[in-house]
Amino acid sequence: MTPWISPSILAADFSRLGEEVRAVLDAGADSIHFDVMDNHYVPNLSIGPLVLQSLRKAGIEETVDVHLMVKPVDRLVEDFLAAGADYISVHPEATEHLHRTLNLIREGGAKAGLVFNPSTPLEVLNEVMDCVDLVLIMSVNPGFGGQAFIESSLSKLSRSRKLISASGRDIRLQIDGGVKGDNISRIAAAGADTFVAGTAIFGSNDYAATIADMRTQIAAGQAQTGA
Questions:
Q1: Confidence (pTM)
Q2: Which pLDDT belongs to residue 143?
Q3: What is the C-alpha separation between 98 and 205, in angstroms, rounded?
Q4: Domain residue spans in the chain?
Q5: Tens-place pLDDT, residues 46-104
Q6: How far apart are CA 148 and CA 145, in angstroms?
Q7: Most exposed among 36, 70, 93, 186, judged by the fewest C-beta atoms under 10 Å?
Q8: Are 20 and 214 in contact (CB under 8 A)?
Q9: Helix axes 74-83, 98-107, angle to 10 degrees
């Protein structure tokens, strides 16, 4: 699957968010990652569907994947569908009826993602594999940007890749948390094909150079496994 680099706007300059999003897309990003926090499921508060709606009105037409770190989740699924999300990812802990929530996303015209925190076991994926278009492995505990990568996430990525490959389904495998130029090669080698990076991109002086370097490192990692 073609690798995607997805900058997380959590690390962007919100005083000029539209410019920042356009800048990273023009610099070579494949999609935009939209972190939504509710100060309930996670200990922080971020942005809502009106921000996405504003970006769409400003002419941002590229893929936006929305990561909902909220509980309960179904109401915001509907709001983000209306705002123009392309992917919506949810945590299994955030809904009483995961199958229903994933199908709500798909029936609304978006692709459905399933998110695993560092301590969340992968077993639930087997029960809903036919409802999933993206699997997101959190390599930090969700709630804050700028955290260090949890090394055990590499093993979890590898196990996820095996489950996805065995299913024969077209499912993206995303990683989020502490992704940088100095570890993205190992992350790619472990099986990820979609890379969320916030501080590493928005905190750099040259978005295009940073993204280009990440692509080089991803290719090197994939070459190790023949991906």
A1: 0.96
A2: 72
A3: 41
A4: 4-225
A5: 999 999 999 999 999 999 999 999 999 999 999 999 999 999 999 999 999 999 999 99
A6: 9
A7: 93
A8: no
A9: 10
CA 132 to CA 54: how far, in whole Å? 27
Q: Which of 35, 38, 74, 193 is catalytic?
A: 35
* Phi then psi dihedrals of residue 138, to 5 deg: -80, 125
CATH architecture of the domain with range 4-225: Alpha-Beta Barrel (3.20)
Amino acid at 93: E
Collect all residues with Cβ–Cβ distance below 8 Å to 161 and sequence separation of at least 6.
173, 190, 191, 192
- Residue 69: count of CB within 10 angstroms of its CB: 25
74 a catalytic residue: no
The per-residue pLDDT for 225 is 76
| CB distance 176 to 145 below 8 Å | no
Which residue among 38, 65, 133, 176 is the active-site one? 176
